[in-house]
Amino acid sequence: MDYRGIIALGEYILQGNQINYEDSLRLTQVTTEDVPLLAAFANKIRQQFAGNGVDMCGLVSARSGMCSEDCKFCAQSVYHSTTAPVYELRNAEEIIIAAQKAQQDGAKRISLVTSGKGMDNDPDFENIVEAIKATIRKTTLKVCANLGTITLPQARILATSGIKRYAHNLETSKNFYPSVCTTHSYEERLATIQAAKTAGMELCTGGIIGMGESWQDRIDFAFALRELDVTSIPINILNPIKGTAFEDIAPTAPLDIIKAFAIFRFILPTKIIRPAGGRELNLRDMQGQLMLSGANGLIIGNYLTFSGRDAAADFKMVRDAGLIPTDYITD
Amino acid sequence: MINYDLIFSLGKKILQGNDITFDEAMALTEIEETDIPILLGVANKIREKFTGSYVDTCQILNARSGGCSENCKFCAQSVHHDVNVDVYPLMSEDDIIKAAQRAEADHAYRFCVVTAGCGMEGDADFAKIATAIKRIGNETSLQRCCSLGTLQEDHVNTLKLVGITRYHHNLETSESYFKEICTSHTYQERVDTIKRVKAAGLEVCSGGIIGMGETWRQRIELAFTLKELNVDSIPINVLNPVKGTALEHQEKLPPMEILQTFAIFRLILPNKIIRYAGGREHNLGELVPLGFLSGVNGMLIGNYLTTEGRGASKDLQTVANLGLKLLEN
After folding, report:
1. Most buried pick, A219, B64, B99, B292, via CB within 10 A?
2. Could you give the C-alpha distances from A308 to A63, A80, A278, A286, B218, in angstroms and in order?
3. How many Å apart are CA B223 and CA B267, to the nearest integer?
4. What is the mean pLDDT of residues A28-36?
């Protein structure tokens, strides 16, 4: 596709239309030379449909390591031998302190994350709910939860405890998923997403690029997210952690990452598209370009098992790009 | 006509080998902020088409620092300013050679010997500088440039003989704004030096500084003057207001406006080297790499004359990240 195709599709979306699957696939053919133009239209689409605010979210890891699942990218899986921290559920006080730290960093939103497949028959669930309530009471943060698979009754408990948004990734396309995880199915993930929706929560659902998936997988993945109508889409770029099955995967080229984010914006004009883990490693010094390529959210501070960069640098980068760090988008 | 239609129609015109007019360039200064990335993307295409994917790197050496008689308001080396800057006479020949070798190790394609002062007329250092430049040619494979202020014809001839291929002499800003920046010498003197150098068959590296309070029109005037003079390389500094200079309190330009300026320069000067110079780190922060997707195809690497750069290795990494290539000797 040459730049005229980019303009035509960009205008089509700016006029309020939805891009179809075939056209989205054609966008993956854009040459390196035209990636900045593709990104520029993604930037316009972002501005028109999602405004200039950038949703800044911090992660709080409440329980780490010893996960029964075999997700190949994950440092917390028992199938992998990594140096990721392992600890039981932290108490409410520790969780609140971590949340306050994120707030000091400038986050308006945190995601409370626990390792493990999910909450079914998990004795920690009650304590987590109490910790969530306490965090909501004692901070002004919006609190999201990321607890793995949940049942509908659990989703309802979370919703009534003040959780407005549940985080549960699809990780990749349905087609590529078996190459990433074999201990639970894509359908189980969809069932949790459905339970959260039924309970009235918004969804923060994304995944990871750069795991060896094809461009078509990325498009399939974006269309699955569009169909689920999720609110926020965190996109990690694989950080190949030593000891995981994916430790030797080569980094994705910065302009390919930018192209992927831009195409996601074409497919998902109104959503929060949120660069997450691995951006430092893979984009190196091209993160600023990402903010002008359709992104309008960030995970700030540290990730679950590896460090991010100083949150202040992200705030400066967002402002230098002419954007406003805020969470007004969904208020 | 919506704004970005204008960007594309002008882009197309340039890609087909035509020039844009002054008024067309002015129209590009008035686009909406949300269309700036589109302009950058078009500039990137033009850069790719007319100059390819090679980046021209240059390291400069402040071979004689401070004590300058001129009153350029931005300059830390002017005697009219009270600035905490190193002042030293011409470095020894050996030290100049060492600096050139460091530049070569930093993967610089060019090396530019710079001296403080108005120019070379009656300057006893000139012969020493010429000797050092000749020796750089024997001991490194660097392209050799120099920036010695105003030159007379005999200087130009000497420099040509010792192996200089390109002479650096900025215009700094537009003719209409120059008197706000400097009153101790004239714009015409600068233009005359450039013409003298060009007439001798040497290439010219000439640009200036943005963010000194000039208007958009004045920036465009500068670009068209450079086009008219047919200079080969255009270093664009973004003011880094040094404490103690007359411009120390000058307000920063917004980063997107800086990138827009680089892009418009690329549209006006499609086949020239548009070169990142000082102040980019200070003013653009993390958006520095975007310049290379906005029409820039050259840069100073390492430190500047009186301010520090971000380090050559970072710049070389950026170039590699973007799939661009370095010009090599």
Report:
1. B292
2. 19, 22, 8, 15, 43
3. 10
4. 95
Residue contact A39–B38, C-beta within 8 A: no
Q: Which of A258, A289, A319, A324 to mutate to test the interface with B (most CBs of B within 10 A)?
A: A289
* Inter-chain CB proximity B286 and A284 less than 8 Å: no
- Residue-level pLDDT at B1: 45
- The CA distance from B248 to B73, in Å, is 9
Residue type, position B124, single letter = A
Distance from CA of B61 to the nearest CA of A (A): 26
pLDDT band, very low/low/confident/very high, at A328 (cuts 50, 70, 90): very low
Instruction: Name residues whose C-beta falls within 8 Å of residue A121's C-beta, 6 or more positions apart in sequence.
Output: none
Tell me the C-alpha to C-alpha distance, in Å, between residue B97 and each of B18, B64, B126, B327. Answer: 43, 14, 16, 21
Coil, strand, or helix at residue B11? helix
Structural domain range at position B130:
3-326
- Surface of A (286-325) touching B: CB under 8 A: 286-289, 292, 313, 316-317, 320-322
Domains in chain A with CATH codes: 3-330 (3.20.20.70)
Which residue(s) pair with B54 in the sheet? B325
Nearest to B255 among A43, A255, A320 (CB): A320
Tokens 């954007």 correspond to A323
Q: What is the mean pLDDT of residues A267-275?
A: 97
Helix H or strand E encompassing A237? strand A232-237
**Residue range B203-229: mean pLDDT, rounded:** 98
Residues of A in contact with B314 (CB under 8 A): 285
Has residue A106 got a pLDDT over 90? no
pLDDT tens for each residue of B80-114: 999 888 899 999 999 999 999 999 999 999 999 99
- Which pair of structure tokens corresponds to residue B283? 């003013």
Asked whether the beta carbons of A38 and A6 are under 8 A apart, the reply is yes
What length is written for chain B? 329
Q: Which pLDDT band, with edges at 50, 70 and 90, does B2 fall under? A: low
What pLDDT does A107 receive? 87
Instruction: Name, of B194-203, B301-310, B320-329, the range with top average pLDDT.
Output: B194-203
Number of neighbouring beta carbons within 10 Å of residue A307:
9
Give me the number of domains chain B comprises: 1
Taking residues A16-31, report their average pLDDT: 97
pTM for the predicted model, two decimal places: 0.90
